[in-house]
Amino acid sequence: MVSQVETKVIEYDVRDLAKRFAMPPSEAHDMLWNEIHQLEQAARIQDFVPVLALKHVKEHLRDGPAQQSA
Fold first, then answer.
1. 17 exposed, middle or buried (CB, 10 Å; 0-12, 13-18, 19+)?
2. Phi, psi for 37 (deg, rounded to 5)
């Protein structure tokens, strides 16, 4: 969750984007928050990559050495 201080900074960034790119603040807001949410989701997924990698290695080992890939 975004803290109050970060929210104020983000709102400043929204105003700056809107001004620099001559767009409505609501559009800049939506674009920035959508990007933040996508990056947060990607970060959560990356937390599980080592767990999934371990699971896949175990599955390959259970299948036997003949089916392991390099």
1. middle
2. -65, -40
What is d(CA 6, CA 1) in angstroms, rounded to the nearest whole number? 10
Q: Which structure tokens are listed for 57?
A: 């290695």
CA dihedral 20, 31, 36, 5 (to 10 degrees): 50
68 with 60: CB under 8 angstroms?
yes
List pLDDT tens digits, range 7-45: 888 899 999 999 999 999 999 999 999 998 999 899 888
Identify the pLDDT of residue 3. Answer: 55
Mean pLDDT of 1-11: 72
